[in-house]
Specification:
344 residues; alpha/beta; Arc Repressor Mutant, subunit A; Rossmann fold; 7-stranded parallel sheet; 49% helix
Length: 344
Amino acid sequence: MIPKIIEAQRKLVPEMMELLHQRYKVLKFIEVAGPIGRRPLGQMANISERECRNLLEAMRTEGLIRVAKEGATITNEGATVLHSLGPTIDEWTGQGVVARRLGELLGIKSVKIVPGDCDENPAVKSLIGKEAATEFSNRIGDGQIIAVTGGSSVAAIPPHLHSIDNPDRLHFIAARGGVGDDIGLQANVIAATFAEASGGTYSTFYYPESLSAEAHEVFKREPTAIRMMEMYEKTDCVLHGIGEALRMADMRNTTEDECLHLQENGAKGEAFGYYFDRNGHVVHRIRTVGIQTEQLKNVPLIIAVAGGNSKADAILSYMASAPRQTILVTDEGAARAMLEKIEE
């Protein structure tokens, strides 16, 4: 609920809350992207350079940010203000209500929503990464083995990993064998990035592409594959993205016959190499060695990251069968689109 004093202020001086929300968003972008200059910050926040200059000066005067030659950065006091205002802003903008409603409708542990829409502003993906990093750091507890998937949303998490107790106990692994051409967004590389950012360790796992069914069965008996499958059984946390089915199929150079199969069977979303229809049923899966959907049920902490209005159908298709302990970190664009689709 919105505090009564805030509700009273909103009725008496409605423009005050608009200004508060605007400064909150700008301060959040500075926290994520700082040091950052006026022009890129204005583009991220969708305000003019003049407005941005005035906001920066006001926040600098209050000690919330530092402004130097290389750009603006947030101060400890600024970070404290952000943390304190978060719940109030969420309630005032309706994000808190949407998050709780979505969590109930999807049947998962919780939904975390960041401002904006990845489709309109790519910088919002950094906000998703920061929120996911916070959830991970606060909840990993005594966990040791963390499986991560590939993708740009998961890759946005490591830059924001801080303050993890005894990070050397954390061991990051790829949630499935490496496939595809974009090395920077592959699970193996991202696992290494997580380890470097947190101070943990990691294991790589490469799965040869284009294996026949027979070769795949032989590969599964390799010591490396067996070792990885044993670790999947002991995984304490999974951090994963969710892709649009046909876009993922195109990125993997999927054959025309398989693409036609996906279309005919209504594939909407993809995760872990599995393709799901709108009801969460698996309609296809790629041939690889990786964590299985049935194993996810035994993983204590699962954090899914995906945003953008265009991802709404994909997220809903996966969430239709997602484990109940899943935490979804998304943005306003995807969250409101999902809620509309569900309530239709």
